[in-house]
Amino acid sequence: MKKNPTQKYASIIFKKHNHNVCFNNAMKAFQKHCFEKNLKLTPLRIKVFEFLLRDHQPLGAYQILDMLRDSGFGSTPPIAYRVLDFLIEQGFAHKIKRLNAFVACSHLGSTHSPAFMICRKCEKVAEINEKESGVNLKKAAPFDFKIEEAVIEVIGLCISCITVEAT
User: Which of 18, 41, 46, 148 is exposed most, by the fewest CB atoms within 10 A?
Assistant: First the structure.
């Protein structure tokens, strides 16, 4: 499988990086995916995905609704949830259960069981793949159980927050 251009940024979310490259690669992958799958690339879908890509911060549905309203879009809850469901279904977003929020996927277009590092102070979220996390759920599952979805959320402090606490 060809390595996704945004994948190399997955484990450096907490470090300084060229976010413009990260953002542009994700937008290109999203557009390409929608074109190849013959999916409508609506202004609303584009805008919500842009919101999720901004700053690697998870966003709640009502935050997204406020941002849509400020951008001149309709802002009823079903609108936001339909777009978020689409982004999750297509592999471009994840729900962070602990925060009841959504974040852009760092491993676009691949089926995977995500693991998230969540900074308890700044609430930035970094997604890491199964190889980076070292968790092999196929080996951990009992023989009489088939895992369909697993989400691992690891809480701690990012390097920026550790540095601030130390000073």
Answer: 148
The model's pTM: 0.78
Residue 139, pLDDT score: 67
- Is 73 among the domain residues? yes
Structure tokens at 152: 């691992």
Q: Does some domain include residue 122?
A: yes
Residue 51's CATH number: 1.10.10.10
Which 3-state string (H, E, C) describes the chain? CCCCCCHHHHHHCCCCCCHHHHHHHHHHHHHHHHHHCCCCCCHHHHHHHHHHHHHHCCECHHHHHHHHHHCCCCCCHHHHHHHHHHHHHCCCEEEECCCCEEEECCCCCCCCCCEEEEECCCCCEEEECHHHHCCCHHHHCCCCCCCCCCCEEEEECCHHHHHHHHC
The residue range of the domain holding 155 is: 7-166
Stretch 122-141: mean pLDDT: 72
Domain count, the chain: 1
pLDDT bin (cut points 50, 70, 90) of residue 142 is low
